[in-house]
Design brief:
Strand 2 and strand 3 form a beta hairpin. The strands form three sheets. The protein has a two-stranded antiparallel ribbon with strand order 1-4. A two-stranded antiparallel ribbon has the order 2-3. The chain is α+β, with helices and mostly antiparallel strands. The protein has five helices and six strands; from the N terminus they run ββββαβααβαα.
Length: 119
């Protein structure tokens, strides 16, 4: 599994998640090293995330501690995240890689070469 984020004219690197993504992993592998620095560089940043269990856990808003605004997401709302459209673009770039990756580790090496993967 990978996690990624987009904003107006840029994106974050993809973060490879090799274990089950729970709220603690989400905080310390995604939010702290990638999201927080990215959004703090913006004047009025609002983080939009879906209602996936790790995103909706009580620990996530506590992590931000009023440093960033969270976009309110209603229960049972349709999946309208704009990043869903980006995955096809990522797939297109990956299909241009030669040779095709046969394992997740090989795929991550391709992502690193393309500058898509967070260290």
């Amino acid at each position: 599994m990978v996690w990624g984020s987009i904003r107006y004219h840029s994106r974050t690197p993809l973060v490879r998640i090799t274990s089950t993504l729970n709220s603690q992993h989400y905080n310390y592998k995604v939010l702290e090293p990638v999201v927080l620095p990215c959004l703090q560089s913006l004047a009025a940043a609002i983080l939009q995330q879906d209602n996936a269990q790790p995103h909706a856990a009580r620990i996530v808003p506590k992590f931000f501690n009023h440093q960033l605004a969270l976009f309110p997401w209603r229960d049972r709302s349709p999946d309208i995240l704009p990043i869903k459209n980006m995955w096809s673009m990522v797939a297109e770039r990956l299909t241009q890689a030669t040779p095709p990756a046969a394992t997740p580790d090989q795929l991550c090496n391709v992502w690193k070469l393309l500058g898509l993967l967070y260290p």
